[in-house]
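Anyone up for a design puzzle?
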């Protein structure tokens, strides 16, 4: 039987995706910065295509007292990887940061002090000057506007991937049952005790941003469909407006044909255009409803948030078939080497 690990003051969760060149120096810096603090680092390899698995495994063996490694069976996305890491933490406080060195670990203690001083559940790092590409900055700007509209968050509150949380909040958000997590949405629907402080944002040590347009669209869909029913309400409003417009247009046409032009001939192009317009509108709304139903189906059939192939803790590799289904870890340890 494996001895239960002791609680530490601070856990650092780092989702890793193709970060073999950057994660090693980052972990080395963390070892120096937090040398006098009881801490742990949870590295989560999210289906990387490079040598990240080997590098993370070696780091866990090199620093067995402070580094644990969680290897997912495939790429599940950043937010699923973060939840996987949070589920393996044991710290009273938990920090989440990127693997490319853009989030300076030196800022974590300032964020933690702010959280303790003002009794927040979470403190976000608000970047003084973003070092992203123009595409990524545009995506972040749009994501912030969407979150403000759908989640009704204050405009001045900025959701970033760099954050520090307390144990209460971590325990709440890892209960999420859906296969499409959005961590900031989970945080905001759990608490309003949220703070932020200005932090440095460094240039990525791994080169251009690995956030593609496809990943940004998936993030927006998760926000749209998993944490708000406003799109459905918007569909209702659009339907009502189109119906009202159609009635007014019909009345105008009848008045024109009976009392103004006295010409009852209707052009085929006009009719076809109207049919195509309303058919497209109906398909859009049906597609939206279908997306909601599809996600509900995937949730009910047990689509996992993530699947853990193995973990490395205290320098030992633990093979497992750990699966997070409906927000619940179901692990079947097979062997330890």
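Challenge accepted. My sequence:
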């Amino acid at each position: 039987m494996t001895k239960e690990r002791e609680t530490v003051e601070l856990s650092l969760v780092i989702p890793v995706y193709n970060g073999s060149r950057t994660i090693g120096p980052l972990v080395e810096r963390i070892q120096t910065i937090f040398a006098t603090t009881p801490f742990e680092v949870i590295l989560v390899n999210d289906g990387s295509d490079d040598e990240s698995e080997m590098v993370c495994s070696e780091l866990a063996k090199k620093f067995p007292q402070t580094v644990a490694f969680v290897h997912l069976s495939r790429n599940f996305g950043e937010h699923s990887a973060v939840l996987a890491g949070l589920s393996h933490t044991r710290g009273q406080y938990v920090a989440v940061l990127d693997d490319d060195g853009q989030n300076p670990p030196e800022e974590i203690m300032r964020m933690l002090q702010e959280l303790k001083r003002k009794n927040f559940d979470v403190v976000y790092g608000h970047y003084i000057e973003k070092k992203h590409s123009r595409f990524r900055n545009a995506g972040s700007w749009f994501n912030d506007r969407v979150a403000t509209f759908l989640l009704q968050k204050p405009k001045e509150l900025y959701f970033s991937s760099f954050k520090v949380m307390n144990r209460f909040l971590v325990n709440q958000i890892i209960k999420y049952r859906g296969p499409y997590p959005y961590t900031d949405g989970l945080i905001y629907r759990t608490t309003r005790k949220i703070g932020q402080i200005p932090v440095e944002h460094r240039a990525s040590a791994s080169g251009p941003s690995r956030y593609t347009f496809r990943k940004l669209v998936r993030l927006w869909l998760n926000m749209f469909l998993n944490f708000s029913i406003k799109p459905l309400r918007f569909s209702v409003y659009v339907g009502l407006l189109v119906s009202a417009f159609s009635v007014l247009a019909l009345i105008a046409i009848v008045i024109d044909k009976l009392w103004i032009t006295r010409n009852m001939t209707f052009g085929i192009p006009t009719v076809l255009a109207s049919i195509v317009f309303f058919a497209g509108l109906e398909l859009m709304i049906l597609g939206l409803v279908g997306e909601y139903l599809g996600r509900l189906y995937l949730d009910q059939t047990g689509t996992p948030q993530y699947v853990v192939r193995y973990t490395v803790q205290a320098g030992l590799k633990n093979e497992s078939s750990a699966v997070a289904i409906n927000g619940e870890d179901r692990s079947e340890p097979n062997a330890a080497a």
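A detail worth pointing out: The two ends are 14 Å apart (CA to CA).
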